[in-house]
Amino acid sequence: MPHQHTEHHPVPAFSRRELMQRAAVLGLVSLPLLRGAALAQSTPPAATPSVPLPATRTASDYKLSLAGLPAVAIPTDVSARKGNKAAWPLLTGVSIAQVEIPEGTWRAPHYHTNTSELAVIVQGSAKAGLQTPGQEWMELEMGAGDCVYFPLGWPHWLRNTGSSVLHTYFNYGHEQPATVEVPG
């Protein structure tokens, strides 16, 4: 019987901040995949962007500081800094929002008509709710490092269940997400 050699490699240690940054980047990079295999299969391999980018781009055009954007109030005292086409004209097919939900409040029920959403919990704890097309509500307990996927058109909400501000990133598969608030 041949001897099998198993190598053990040390696992790199990441700080909590590095781990959260990597999760947020992974979520944003994965968004085009969430748009569905049908889209990928129907796009010709030699497809070019529908809007050509100007040749005069500089390195700074590819960076956006969400912290430098003004916070926008959304229902129930939640603040969001939105990295969408309006704030970052270079974007095509993706966007992101840095969202802070105060203790004891929530991002009220809403849905998106043109994109799915991938929410990443950076700091704090939460409960996420999403409603299926069959009108069934599902709820999930969330903590730092957890992600939740909200499919296109599904009503959803996120409630802060912790004792401090909930810090999250919402990632979208569209450069200008369209949001519809659900009356409650």
From TrEMBL:
<dbReference type="InterPro" id="IPR006311">
    <property type="entry name" value="TAT_signal"/>
</dbReference>
<feature type="domain" description="Cupin type-1">
    <location>
        <begin position="78"/>
        <end position="181"/>
    </location>
</feature>
<dbReference type="InterPro" id="IPR014710">
    <property type="entry name" value="RmlC-like_jellyroll"/>
</dbReference>
<dbReference type="Pfam" id="PF00190">
    <property type="entry name" value="Cupin_1"/>
</dbReference>
<dbReference type="InterPro" id="IPR006045">
    <property type="entry name" value="Cupin_1"/>
</dbReference>
<dbReference type="InterPro" id="IPR011051">
    <property type="entry name" value="RmlC_Cupin_sf"/>
</dbReference>
<protein>
    <submittedName>
        <fullName>Cupin domain-containing protein</fullName>
    </submittedName>
</protein>
